[in-house]
Amino acid sequence: MAALARISTDRPSDRQVPAPRLVVTLGLYGSASTWLFNVVRETLNAAHGAERVCAYYADAITLILQDGAIPGRFVVVKMHVGDASLAGFVHLAQPLLLLSVRDPRDAVVSLMQRFGQDFEKAASRVVQSARRILFFAAAGHPVLRYEDDFFTRPETLDAIAARLGVTLRDEIKAAIFAGYQTASVRKFAADVAHLPPGRLDGNPADLFDRVTHIHRNHIGDGMIGKWKERLSAPESAALTETLGDFITTFGY
After folding, report:
1. Could you give the C-alpha distances from 42 to 121, 143, 225, in angstroms and in order?
2. What residues contact 122, with CB distance under 8 A and at least 6 apart?
3. Are 87 and 35 within 8 A, CB to CB?
4. How many CB atoms lie within 10 A of CB 250?
């Protein structure tokens, strides 16, 4: 397997890269993937104007390609799994593809806790996501690891802005960073039902904001290694066997 391309959080150089027209954030469930999506979206909004940015959640690129709003705009797509066409699409379109990962056993527990999913459903989702992410990590796309606390570090935003080919004023970066810290998101999630009706989707038990994709039950306990206490021995053994390559590759 090729060496992993971790996203660098070293101070970016003054030389900016061309801005990609398409950014895809592909994240394991519970890996701060929504943080990553929103920081990319907000950074592009600040650099180019919100009217020039389209943002979507879609696990199939074909679901968005017919949107007549796309031409002439920057596009950000959040996904957890993708579909069989994703590898071919990435090869041809060459988007900036950013990956976020987490110990998949903790990811399963996170889905069970936050959304009331049973083990079988949560495990099936995480396994599909992990397999897709592993493929793209092996191809050299940059990886952000939940356990490295990338979402708590301002330098991560600097690194993302550099990848996007943009420069933001310090006060704008600070505002974006503050808006998606855990406490801010927890408060937003608690109040999501009070958003304008046009921004809401889902059902009363799983209400979420169409813009940020923050769910009512979005923030969990954030604990690392919780699977050791909250999964049964057969459940943890099954996941460890099924996703052994993912667990080894990312150091879990």
Report:
1. 32, 20, 31
2. 29, 108, 109, 111, 112
3. no
4. 23
Q: For residue 124, what are the contacts with CB-CB under 8 A and spacing of at least 6? A: none
Listed range (3-7, 16-20, 75-79, 133-137) with the worst mean pLDDT: 3-7
Structural domains of the chain, with CATH: 19-180+221-249 (3.40.50.300)
Q: Are 154 and 168 in contact (CB under 8 A)?
A: no
Q: 103 forms bridges with which residues in the sheet?
A: none
The full 3-state SS of 167-193, as one line of letters, equals CCCHHHHHHHHHHCCHHHHHHHHHCHH
Nearest to 188 by CA among 202, 169, 173, 208: 208
φ/ψ of residue 67, rounded to 5: -70, 115
Q: pLDDT tens-digit profile of 102-153?
A: 999 999 999 999 889 999 999 999 999 999 999 999 999 999 999 999 999 9
On whether the CB atoms of residues 220 and 30 are closer than 8 A, the answer is: yes
User: What's the DSSP call for residue 243?
Assistant: T
The pTM of this model reads: 0.90
Give the contacts of 220 (CB within 8 A, at least 6 positions apart).
30, 110, 113, 114
Neighbours of 50 (CB within 10 A): 12
Q: How confident is the model at residue 8 (pLDDT cuts 50, 70, 90)?
A: low
Q: Strands 200-201 and 208-209, how do they pair?
A: antiparallel
- Tens digit of pLDDT for each residue in 217-235? 777 788 999 999 999 999 9
